[in-house]
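Dear colleague,

Thank you for sharing your sequence with our group. We've completed the structure prediction you requested, and as agreed, I am returning the results in plain text so they can be pasted directly into your records. Please verify that the sequence below matches your submission; if there's any discrepancy, let me know and we will rerun it promptly.
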Amino acid sequence: MATSTVLARPPRGRSKRPWPETWVAAAFVAPAALVVLLIVVVPLGRALWMSLFHIVLTRPGIEPFVGLDNYIEQLTSSDFWASTGLAILFTALAFNTLGEAMRVALDPTMKR
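Please find the predicted structure tokens below.
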């Protein structure tokens, strides 16, 4: 005796799945993205905006717009370039010294 099986079509309309995977992923990423936005992007934008003004902390409220003059002043200053050179030198020496110290400490084939 043979029996036949009839496959029913799924009902049209709303899907049984509550949310597509992309929405779930977005829901998990959204809080982290909001934190990054509030902690990194907003202060960075504010700093860039403030750099276009001549701000003196002893005279609040008097902030004339100077455009890129602050950047031009820094890039033509010998003190800026001397400080930048020292910062690069210190960073290179610190990384090389720490890297070499870690290599010596972690290399089991080194004879002491």
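Summary note from our side: The mean pLDDT is 86.

Kind regards,
the structure core
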